[in-house]
Amino acid sequence: MGYELHFNSVLAYAPDLLAGALLTLKLAAGTIFFGMILGTLCALVRVEAPFWLSLPVRTYVAVIRNTPLLVQLFIAFFGLPLIGIKASANTAALVTMIIHLGAYVTEIVRAGIQSIPKTQFEAGLALSLSRWQVYRYIIAVPALQTIYPALTGQFTLIVLGSSVASAISASELTSVAGVVESHTFRSLETYLVVTVIYICITVFLRLAYYAIGRLIFRRKVAAPSMATPLSLQKVVP
């Protein structure tokens, strides 16, 4: 018995699906922005602070990276209200995703910082730069360039992982798709449309990552040659 595809009933809910996709993008934007800030700060603590001060950050990273995002969502939405901490499904999803992403960003940024030779850091201090100035002018761009592919890949994973927020009724794309499917009874068509939307979102993000990367890394520093006098070494545009 053949199955005939009928998309008309599903496409009638296009405004709802687009609204869900928009919320997915908003969740992604908030998660990436605040998750990057959280992860960078935690990475600096990991690198700069002594072991006993960085222990809370190490514990946070270990706990988050070794538990599923879905379990973390359930704790935030169903567990915390039992102790008086209540939030809407969308807010709980956003905060949980920020905390989840922050743990992964911490390790990625830490690896990027530690990939820079210590001699460069010491040279900056020898030039009377503060530690903040060393990070800003010497460490930041080369470290970011090293970790950029891994970082953007993690961003894409968290955007796609936002689909599990439908388990707590956050009104993102997958949650809306469940409602559409329950109304139309066209499961295959509904999730084929949702698949196309997710592909469009990830392609858009990859183009955005590429454009941002080109903007940040548009100038490359030529590697100093031992045979080239220091006065002739220069920045190549």
Written account of the structure:
The chain is an all-alpha fold and 237 residues long. It has a single domain (14-222, 232-236), classed as MetI-like (MetI-like fold, Orthogonal Bundle), CATH 1.10.3720. Helix content is 73%, strand content 2%. It is built from nine helices and two strands. The chain has helices at 8-11, 14-48, 51-65, 69-79, 89-115, 118-126, 131-161, 173-184, 187-216; strands at 220-221, 235-236. It has a two-stranded antiparallel sheet with strand order 1-2. It is elongated, with a radius of gyration of 23 Å.
Strand order of the largest sheet: 1-2
Q: Using only CA atoms, what is the Rg?
A: 23 Å
Order of helices and strands: HHHHHHHHHEE
Task: Assess the beta-strand content as a share of residues.
Answer: under 5%
End-to-end separation in angstroms reads: 64 Å
Number of helices: 9
- Looking at CATH, the homologous superfamily is MetI-like
Oligomer: single chain
Low-confidence stretches: 220-237
The chain-level structural class is mainly alpha
